[in-house]
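---------- Forwarded message ----------

FYI, see the Transglutaminase domain-containing protein record below. Original note from H. follows.
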Amino acid sequence: MRLRIEHLTRYSFSQPVRHGLQRLRLIPKHTQGQRVLDWQMELSGARREVEYDDHHHNRTTLVSVEPGATEVEIRCIGTVATADNHGVIGQISGHMPQWAFLTQTPLTRPGQNVRAIVSELDVPRGDTLAMLHRLSSLVLSHVAYATGETGVHTSGEEAAALGKGVCQDHAHIFIGAARSLGVPTRYVSGYLMLTDRIEQQAGHAWVEAHVDHLGWVGFDVSNGISPDERYVRVATGRDYREAAPVTGMSYGAGETSLEVRLAVEQQRAEQ
């Protein structure tokens, strides 16, 4: 499948920026199940400083905000060819040792609510793949998908206590639970082509867990499936903070507002 993606991120500042830096993880790479055919990033109100692969092998762009800017616009347009590998990614290059994905972070650290979900697992732990699929379904049954209830700083434990959240929260709960069971697990940010619409309000998030003899395997907890040809991987990390599409800081900007426009659709090969 060929997926055409247009992703606009616009920051507006109430006062001219004196100094600002942003770290962008918005460039997908060739991995198992996807091949980047073309990809462009256009900046307005900011300029590229350096581009590099970070410790998770994410293609990362560091940009500086132009002094005096009241708006920064980041526009990505590209096409990615994808295939359905039933969620199996296999061995992916990177500089992080596998044991690093067993270490909990403030966003994934389980408390009594996440541990309660784990206690309901009724699959033998020797069958890791079946156990992870069951864990995914348990997380979704305990935490309903609901927008506007949580934010980027909400931990998985907090979302589990609330019983509501979005894909980021489902991912953090799953990661915390899987790591507590001794399974290396990581956060994935990227894109998902929806079946009912092209325009979206945000990108998507899911998880990958390391299973012996298979390597990394994806689980989209929010949709109860493993990623297929509708998914495009962009960045991975131990949690959202290490795989976030845009992070940064600015001085003198006053109040900041964010607008995101995203369109993901299938493209005919001859176009």
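H. also flagged this: The chain has two domains: 2-82+246-266, 88-243.
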